[in-house]
Amino acid sequence: MLLRGFGLDPTSEEARRAVTRIREHVAWEHDGEPFFAGEVEPCINGKVVALGPYFGENVHGIVDRLLGEQMSDGGWNCEQENGSTRGSFHSTIDVLEGLLEYERAVGSTSRVSAARLRGQDYLLDRRMLRRLSTGEVIDPDWTHFSYPTYWHYDVLRGLDYMRAAGVAPDERVAEAIELVESRRDSDGRWALENQHPGRMHFPMDEGEGRPSRWNTLRAMRVFRWSSPSSRSA
Q: Please, what are the averages of pLDDT over each run of 10 residues along the chain (233 residues)?
């Protein structure tokens, strides 16, 4: 996921060699499924769908599974198999990012587009961070920004997806955009906040609380997307 985020050339010799090894030798713990066949959790499968088209691997079967697992509120939830009946921001953002990459790489269909748009509305209708029922902030951690995000949702990640998907900014994202702006420091940068546990192969920033090049890059992309000229276009 990080190499994709960094823009690694998927046709390079190094990428092809690594992806071939993954395809031929890596299996999921759940039931020994091949890596690019996915497993049962939508959050995991959403990430595989994002990786597959980028690196030229077939993930059509996973996409079909995800379309069949979309919940009545428009979201997805990794706890669905355990009885959950409501979407999860964490699972939904993973699936949305995957479906967007899939559409870019192999072309859109009416089913995929409709599912992704319903998933977008799941986030937008909740103002990117609030409960639909009460208007309360669902999780204060979502107001602090991290990179890598792993499977975790936060407001900056959600807005950066909306930018990438070409969503026209409206009043449903206004509060979230203001929140991102409030996190900018006096030097015009954004810090690494709420750092998530996970394996890091090399340091990407100077540590939690210090300026983060990846948070700053994504925040600046969001501001270019949400500028007044963009809103009126």
A: 92 96 96 96 96 96 97 95 91 98 92 98 98 96 95 97 97 97 96 88 86 96 83 41
| CA atoms within 13 A of residue 21's CA, in its CB half-sphere | 5
113: three-class secondary structure by DSSP: helix
What DSSP character marks residue 147? S
Nearby residues of 109 by Cβ (< 8 Å), 6 or more positions away: none
Burial of 209 from C-beta contacts in 10 A (0-12 / 13-18 / 19+): exposed
Residue 200's SS3 state is coil
- Quick check: pTM over 0.85? yes
**Cα–Cα separations (whole angstroms), residue 200 to 55, 62, 151, 196:** 22, 27, 15, 11
Whether 138 and 197 have beta carbons less than 8 Å apart is answered as no
Q: Which residue has the tokens 């937008």?
A: 124
User: Between vectors from CA 187 to CA 207 and to CA 150, what angle results, nearest 5°?
Assistant: 35
Helices 60-69 and 42-54: crossing angle in degrees, nearest 10, is 150
ω into residue 148 within 30 of 0, thus cis?
yes
Quickly count: other Cβ atoms within 10 Å of residue 174's Cβ.
Answer: 14
φ and ψ at residue 212, rounded to 5 degrees: -115, 120
Q: How far is the C-alpha of 59 from the C-alpha of 172, rounded, in Å?
A: 32
Lookup: tokens for 167: 């969503």
Closest CA to 93 of 134, 22, 34, 149: 149
